[in-house]
Design a protein that fits this description.
It is built from eleven helices and seven strands.
Length: 270
């Protein structure tokens, strides 16, 4: 398997805080069954701005250390680029990077507000022959209320990466509900840990894989965890299943529009 989304480089963003923590994360990933990890450090203007050359040095040094220790884990360079008006410029200037220097770009949106120019920037990336990949669509509050946005983006050429932890409720019951809907309707193309700290998500991966397999089957799971990520690393085209447009039920809409009250959620009262 290939972990498509991680924050394992030390002191680059809000992920790993030391080289020791980085190697602990790699050890955990190996134990969870990952043979390769894509390092997708945040790139966010005015906050996380470590450029490509510095991150390349880190990746090379870590890979050499792993090789010297006979640890067979491959590490690849990427970014999780926070949505902005100048994504193309950041890539052209070598500030942010695509996945493994391919045409695939992982980007994220603000959690609580859809950017007004989202479609404009997506169109610009597509015009530059890039393939946009949206990180964890299930986590955005505006997507939870209106999942039609994800169907529409996929139809326009955007691919989707879900977080492993979403299916077990790591980001709340709304993300858990909507990611299941995405799995059921061919709207997820990659899976990533989005790991930031040791002893968090990696030890839970075996259980999570079983839960996702129960939804989409083992063959589809292998596609999301191994085949599609490998195609990205090789800069090959990914053929996706046609997404299925769906509507939330009244009960699901109510869940998506209410926060938890006290110990029991609104969901429990329905």
């Amino acid at each position: 398997m290939i972990d498509f989304h991680s924050h394992i480089l030390p002191n680059i963003d809000d992920g790993s805080r030391s080289i020791e923590e980085t190697f602990n994360l790699i050890k955990e990933a190996k134990q969870a069954g990952f043979e390769a990890i894509i390092s997708t450090s945040h790139y966010m203007e005015n906050y996380y701005e470590t450029d490509v050359p510095e991150r390349e040095v880190w990746v090379k040094a870590i890979c050499e250390n792993l090789q010297n220790k006979n640890i067979e884990t491959n590490l690849y360079l990427g970014n999780e680029i926070y949505f902005c008006n100048n994504i193309i410029e950041l890539l052209e200037k070598g500030k942010a990077s695509t996945i493994n220097d391919t045409s695939y770009v992982l980007f994220e949106l603000p959690l609580n507000a859809e950017p007004m120019n989202l479609y404009d920037i997506v169109y610009e990336m597509l015009q530059y022959k890039l393939v946009p990949i949206l990180a964890h669509p299930e986590r955005y509050s505006f997507v939870q209320k209106d999942p039609d946005l994800i169907y529409d983006l996929i139809e326009k050429g955007v691919l989707m990466q879900a977080n492993y932890g979403s299916i077990i409720g790591q980001y709340g019951e709304k993300a858990q509900l909507i990611v299941r809907k995405f799995f059921e309707n061919n709207m997820i193309h990659f899976l990533g840990s989005d790991v930031h700290r040791p002893n968090t998500i990696y030890p839970k991966i075996p259980k999570i894989l079983n839960e996702i397999s129960d939804i989409i089957g083992k063959e589809k799971l292998e596609e999301l965890t191994t085949k599609n990520p490998q195609l990205v690393l090789n800069n090959k085209r990914i053929n996706i299943d046609e997404p299925i447009e769906f509507k939330l039920s009244l009960k699901e809409k109510i869940i998506m529009n209410f926060k938890k009250w006290g110990k029991n959620s609104f969901k429990d009262k329905l």
